[in-house]
Amino acid sequence: MPTPHISSNIEDIASTVLMPGDPLRAKFIADTFLKDVKLVNQVRNMFAYTGTYKGKKVTVMGSGMGMPSIGIYSYELFKFYNVERIIRIGSCGAYDKDLKLFDVILVSQAYSESSFAKTMGISNRHLLSASKSLNNRIKRAATKVNIPIREGVIHSSDVFYRLSHEAYKEIYEKHQTIAVEMESFALFANAKALNKKAACLLTVSDSLVNHEETTSEQREKAFTNMMEIALNSI
Ligand code: HPA
């Protein structure tokens, strides 16, 4: 049954969904890695593709940027499309000086100033965890495909552009957040609210420490390590 933001039939969405932020990255993953691909959502150009990877059915769908956007799509997938697990595959900015461009992070917990979990009515806490069992599957897949990952706490921020470049240091020091992105906290809140599983893999696209960054074309195409880990975990 269609929802306000997803027009798919229920049988066209797999029980596991991979969610990049960018809908064109979802298309890239479907074109590059999946067989028997079908485009199953085009509402607002938030493309979703369902296909198979090594014989297993999987859906890849864009989440958009920020907690409100992933909050809407992940809620509708969990609640109305019987999705059991969502793995976000996104980009992040490094807070930790030892992280290099294209390093892959597995999120253990997301810290956020966001009111998402409180407003939803599930928690007053500002730290939410990924699914341990899903993270264990992802770690086994990373070992299998021989790609190193760093596990850690990240910052889910509502703000991309800040007046002070140095402001990240306070959050880094206080909450031991190794990197920043803008979605995991809402995804983990929805999973907790609906008794589902969520995880998040991130590729470092820029560094707040040494001001390196990748291009938008690299962001679309070059994050294949993270995609292979996520696909091999399903
Ligand atoms: N801030 C927030 N989200 C991000 C960043 C950043 O610097 N880089 C990639 N996603």
Which tags fit this structure?
single chain; 234 residues; alpha/beta; 5-stranded mixed beta barrel; binds hypoxanthine
Describe the structure.
By secondary structure, this protein is α/β, with parallel strands linked by helices. The protein contains eight helices and ten strands. Strands 5-9-8-6-10 form a five-stranded mixed barrel, surrounded by five helices. A hairpin with a 2-residue loop joins strand 3 and strand 4 (56-61). It is globular, with a radius of gyration of 16 Å. It starts with 15 loop residues before the first strand and ends with a helix. The model has no long low-confidence stretch (mean pLDDT 95). Bound molecules: hypoxanthine. Hypoxanthine binds at residues 91-93, 157, 160, 180-182, 205-206.
Topology:
Layout: E1 16-19, H1 23-33, E2 35-41, E3 48-53, E4 56-61, H2 67-80, E5 85-94, E6 104-111, H3 116-120, E7 127-129, H4 132-144, E8 150-156, H5 168-175, E9 177-181, H6 184-194, E10 197-207, H7 216-221, H8 224-232
Parallel strand pairs: 1-4, 1-5, 5-10, 6-8, 8-9
Antiparallel strand pairs: 2-3, 3-4, 5-9, 6-7, 6-10
Helix pairs in contact: 2-6, 4-8
Oligomer: single chain
Q: Structural class per helix/strand content?
A: alpha/beta
- The overall strand count is 10
Unreliable parts: none
How many DSSP helices?
8
Order of H and E elements: EHEEEHEEHEHEHEHEHH
Estimate the helix proportion, in percent.
25-40%
Ligands bound, unique: hypoxanthine
Compose a concise summary of this entry.
It is built from 8 helices and 10 strands. By secondary structure, the protein is α/β, with parallel strands linked by helices. Strand 8 (150-156), helix 5 (168-175) and strand 9 (177-181) form a beta-alpha-beta unit.
